[in-house]
Request: fold
Amino acid sequence: MQVVTTEQPQILKLMLTEPIDRILLTDESENTSILYTEFTTVDKGYYYEITIDLDLVNNRFYKIEAKFEDALICYDKLLCTDGIDNRYTQRVTQNTFITL
Reply:
């Protein structure tokens, strides 16, 4: 699941197996969809970082469908929150391993 704010642009991190040319964003509260075709994609090795201007409403869940033509390449969920109530926080781990 992706956690972003309403500030534009948003950065999505997706694990893609093929290039994409469109992103379909569906609001789960109203069941409305918006198709985005303008975004930038940067290969980060294990994932792709996508910079995109999304029209989001605070404290709502969305479905992300990354597509190439009509084929679904990646599916993910998104939560838009400005974090005012601190109910949702994104955790960051160091993945530090100790070997003896």
Q: What stands out?
A: The longest strand covers residues 71-80. The radius of gyration is 15 Å. The chain has a mean pLDDT of 88. The chain has no helices and eight strands.
